[in-house]
């Protein structure tokens, strides 16, 4: 069976970006909150991890954060499923990873800007001296920017190869 190229649809980039937003949240929540225990959602907002009550509050908010990241992944799955069910996709091997990388980078930029800088809910690494928190927060933003740009480049390359 041959497929006429005019029948092919563009890859749903929004699905990949939603996957990346969710994966970025999973990484932050699992690695930084749970494994490394560098911070929790509200550790700089008056709930430092110095009592059981504060840890319970942070655990609840960490859980709500994780639930929101599942919504991003679910949204990406819905978009990809709906698009792929109706269309034959032009799909280079660069498109999905590029879009995911863009979403991950967008997550870091948004979460870092809002939670770390604007609201001050927590900082990336609260286990280091307070004077060093800004360097970790800025590094998180730079890392997000590099992922966003790298993903965008991969997406462009993928579009050229479809």
Short description:
With 162 residues, the chain is an all-alpha fold.
Task: Provide an overview of this structure.
This protein is mainly alpha-helical and about 160 residues long. The protein is about 70% helix and about 0% strand. It has helices at about 15-35, 50-85, 95-120, 135-160; strands at about 10, 90. Helix 1 packs across helix 3. The protein is elongated and about 55 Å long. The two termini are about 20 Å apart.
Task: Supply database-style keywords.
mainly alpha; disordered N terminus; 2 strands; two-stranded parallel ribbon; about 160 residues
What order do the helices and strands come in, and which of them pair?
Layout: E1 8-9, H1 13-35, H2 52-86, E2 88-89, H3 95-118, H4 133-160
Parallel strand pairs: 1-2
Helix pairs in contact: 1-2, 1-3, 3-4
**Number of discrete helical segments:** 4
The radius of gyration is 19 Å
- Topology pattern, helix = H, strand = E: EHHEHH
What about the largest sheet? 2 strands, parallel
List segments where confidence is low: pLDDT < 50 over at least 5 consecutive residues: 1-8
Shape: elongated
Main structural class: mainly alpha
Query: How far apart lie the N and C ends?
Result: 19 Å
Give the overall pLDDT as a whole number. Answer: 91
Number of strands: 2
Query: What is the share of helical residues?
Result: 55-70%
| Neighbour order of strands in the largest sheet | 1-2
Query: In percent, how much strand structure appears in the residues?
Result: under 5%
